[in-house]
Amino acid sequence: MAPVLILMGSKSDWPVMKNAAKMLEDLGVAWQAQVVSAHRTPDLLQTTMQQAEQDGVPVVIAGAGGAAHLPGMLAAFTAIPVFGVPVPSKQLKGLDSLLSIVQMPKGVAVGTLAIGDAGAANAGLLAAQVIGSFDPTVRAKVQAFRAHQREQVLQGSKLELDA
To answer: How many CB atoms neighbour CB 101 within 10 A?
Structure first.
């Protein structure tokens, strides 16, 4: 299977988007990352999605800040599921990015995650869940991840409170 494609509008988005890569690695899912700007390299954006279709890429994760057009533009060129991660911006702390990604017109779907690191990690998890819907090995790893999270919460819930 082709790797999950992690795209970002700028190299400066990597500190956030590496959280998606880490989650995918932890769940045994291959990934590939590259920079594709919706505004500065629109021709590369289109050819990247054409190649992704040909290669059988199962899911695309796209991180973008500011105007954040990348996830929506990618989705316009493919039927591959696209998950958008709003990258925090200097001026509006990612709220601008979130609104740009989440406000897709009817008929062009982008799954939008939370702003920043948590959104990127959850995009990786969601991509693994999609792949796990047809790959039992990945599904088992996602289930093990969830069981581990549950155990962590249960262990932490046994607090000794001072009287």
So the answer is: 30
What CA–CA distance (Å, rounded) separates 13 from 8? Answer: 6
Alpha carbons 135 and 43: distance in angstroms, whole number:
33
Each residue's pLDDT tens digit, 58-90? 999 999 998 899 999 999 999 999 999 999 988
Go through the domains of the chain in sequence order and give each one's CATH number.
Answer: 2-154 (3.40.50.1970)
139 is in an annotated binding site: no
pLDDT, tens digit, for every residue of 107-133?
A: 999 999 999 999 999 999 999 999 999
In this prediction the pTM is: 0.93
How is residue 158 written in tokens?
């046994």
94 touches 116 (CB < 8 A): yes
117 — phi, psi (to 5°)?
-55, -45
- Check whether 150 is labelled as a binding-site residue: no
Residue 89 labeled ligand binder: no
